[in-house]
Amino acid sequence: MFKKSLAVLFTFIMAFSCISCGEKIDPPEKVVASYLDALKNGDLTSAKAYVNEENDEILSETEDESTNTLINSILKNLTYKVVSTEVKDSTATVKTTIKNIDMKTVMGEVFSELLSLAFSGLDAEALETKQNEAFAKALEANKDTLKETEVTIQLEKKETGWIIIPTEDLADGITGGLLSYADDLNSSFGGAPEEESAN
Predict the structure, then answer these.
(1) Three-state secondary-structure class, residue 17
(2) Mean pLDDT of all residues in the chain?
């Protein structure tokens, strides 16, 4: 359940239902930079314009205030550096170094605090409030504990310009290793990775 929720949550930042419009075609590295800048600034609407049109049903499952708050609290710590770009016909790859707070450390602290609330008798609303508080506290405490990931971002050229192809590696880098953490957690409880369990 936890793994599934995280997968849905962070696929949201990768899969959207619209493509950018305009006469000027930005180079691939500019598209990547604009996408990551939009995410960092919490401008998910603008970020949608740079991503391949896939899984648009996810929008209806995750468009709520608490989800957006969670996403933004993670993405605002994002930094990146474009390393190199390679273009071949209608495809391109942009090698990018991405840094964010190490979510393995953050989530370890969050779970430790949540365990103490497991039998607290709090109702669902109060428990959600405590969870959000624990998450914010752990993020702040570990803001200097960073995870650096080098990601090869894939793009394809459409009539309107270059767009990013969502991958789990990119989502994992953007979120400071959160998807990897969720996979490890799922495996520790005897579950299969999300892709395997779907087959």
Answers:
(1) coil
(2) 80
